[in-house]
UniProtKB/TrEMBL annotation:
Annotated TM spans: none
Organism: Besnoitia besnoiti
Pfam families per the UniProt record, alphabetical: Sedlin_N
GO CC field: cytoplasm
Gene Ontology BP terms: endoplasmic reticulum to Golgi vesicle-mediated transport
Recorded family membership: Belongs to the TRAPP small subunits family. Sedlin subfamily.
Name of the protein in question: Trafficking protein particle complex subunit 2-like protein
Domain of life: Eukaryota
Length: 162
């Protein structure tokens, strides 16, 4: 399966949901996801203070264009159980962060990854707009729809393997 992990993180970096798909060593993928989150935070800080020594020089383009595109693209590679993965990130305007790990050997287009993030963000928005939501977004409906989205894109990405 091309999509190995999907992680939803709140504005204060609180984990909302972390799902690992078809991987024997779930703990190493969780560790890699939280390490990728640190890089996302660095990118966000660089956008907020572009003149800092860690961010791009003044006048340089920010990671997220002012057009409202929340897609950050590839954040970092990860190695779990001898497989190479790339972590992609998306940061919503409300501060929600979505991380996705995709097998590096998969052949896919950036617009497919963007569409994956749009669907995941819509799933999150639909979940938190539920007036009966209690403490967690991980309701059976949320998890079922997440599995369906990951299955769809996993097949789509795997179908392009060489």
């Amino acid at each position: 399966m091309a999509v190995a992990c999907v992680c939803f993180v709140g504005k204060q970096n609180e984990p909302l949901s972390l799902q690992v798909f078809n991987l024997e060593d779930e703990l190493s993928m969780q560790f890699a996801a939280y390490a990728a989150l640190d890089i996302v935070e660095e990118k966000i800080q660089a956008q907020q203070s572009p003149s800092s020594s860690y961010g791009p020089p003044a006048g340089a383009a920010a990671s997220v264009p002012p057009s409202g595109d929340c897609y950050l693209g590839v954040i970092c590679p990860a190695l779990c159980l001898g497989r190479d993965y790339l972590f992609y990130a998306y940061v919503g305007t409300t501060g929600i962060k979505i991380l996705v790990a995709i097998e590096q050997r998969s052949q896919y287009h950036q617009h497919d990854v963007r569409n994956l993030f749009r669907r995941l963000h819509r799933l999150y928005a639909d979940s938190i707009c539920n007036p009966f939501l209690l403490d967690t977004i991980e309701t059976p409906k949320f998890l079922g729809e997440l599995d369906a989205i990951v299955d769809f894109y996993g097949k789509k990405f795997a179908g392009r393997d060489h």
